[in-house]
Write a structure and sequence with these properties.
This is glycine dehydrogenase (aminomethyl-transferring). The chain is α/β, with parallel strands linked by helices. It has 14 helices and 12 strands.
Amino acid sequence: MNRPEHPISATETGRPRSFTSNRGLCLEEGLIFEIGRPNVTGVDIDEPAPFETRLGALEREEPIGLPGLSEPEAMRHYVRLSQKNYSIDAGIYPLGSCTMKHNPRLNEAMARLPGFGDIHPLQPESTVAGALELISELSRWLMEMTGMPAVAMSPKAGAHGEACGMMAIKAAIAARGEAATRRIVLVPESAHGTNPASAALVGFATRTVPCGADGRVDLAALKGLLGPDVAAIMLTNPNTCGLLESDIVAIAEAMHEAGAYFYCDGANFNAIVGKTRPGDLGVDAMHINLHKTFSTPHGGGGPGAGPVVLSARLAPFAPVPFVQEGENGLRLVEHVEADSRSFGRMAAFHGQMGMFVRALSYMMSHGADGLRQASEDAVLSANYIRASLSDLMTQPFGDQPCMHEVLFDDAWLKPTGLSTLDFAKAMIDEGYHPMTIYFPLVAHGAMLIEPTESESKASLDLFIATLRDLAFSALDGELDRFVGAPHDAPRRRLDETRAARNPVLKWTAPAQEG
């Protein structure tokens, strides 16, 4: 009798083979095309009655060939896939600049309430009075926290909000008759990559502002770039090095004196909520990532929301739709009215309703003091990590207090011959998702860690101890721990460059032998 062949070779898993390739109760799961059968389905579908096709030459001539699974098989397949996805519910998610904080389940319960979870953007306005009130109340909170008089709620995420703010600035410049001359947007070299992209999308050209030795915008260099051709600056505060821009007021004053506008990237707003208001600092426009600052982790490309708060200088140019208080209560202004200077519409509807509900639930359950404490705790957590690792790992701008995230570089790894990637991959063997690596670009071999306020001291202590143990191993020459890591994950290290340049987007059945 022939011995049955195991489905996956030992070389793929990097471990002594088991017959199933399962490892303990961590189950191997093939692609649905590999395990499915075209003639199997979990439901019975009746044959259609005779009909006349309207597809013409586009009608399929061959079976579609989609895989089929029974209902238990389908359930097991997707549950097994879900177990392979690391999440904030499984452990600390230290991605810098991404704010992967705990999402309270109260938010989810509120988002699923009848009247929020089952409404449709095209139903009559008279039937969604509660939703309009919620949008209005959320807007009030956002304006109060930022010190700004207006907010556009329709942008769907951060980059969409950036585009909204830049479109408002472009409209304001055009209203002043300077559209032909003010074409330059200044972007610090530590900015998020979406900043120059958003400016270019709207039709501006960009000019880079260097950072100083302390990791902050070089104020003298900035002033040297100002002129009648400058439309705005796009600056993140705290910046992507995890540092507060201490010259923020002076930057705003310089921009305004030059006739330009100040756009602040609000991706890191969660470090300063309740501590300072961007409007008081001279900011003209700022997007707010509701899906970052106000609890909902945004991994996996899930729904986002990027409302944009606007100063009095830009408020008249806000896009439609927006909620407005009228004689008969709240109404949704859907179209640009005759006397309006709005730049128009940039989204079909009002925004991401589910995200609005989650964000307001988070705000109201925390209150003003709780939101302020969340900012304080996020900054405290990041500085705790910084202080606990600074004797082993180097920081590109010196060992100075950070805000909500701490930035290390790879200078300390140089004697070992290891790379930032090697260190990050070894973290996977310890059960940790790696931090953000190689960003921001101003730090060579960057390692950007953001613990958020969600983690307990015990959680942070174990994370710090793990990184210290890895660092000692690297410095002691224990290179086998890093080269080729991860060793214990279901898959070994992938060739990510090749995967990005030559993606395989279609499954092809293996050729049949014989």
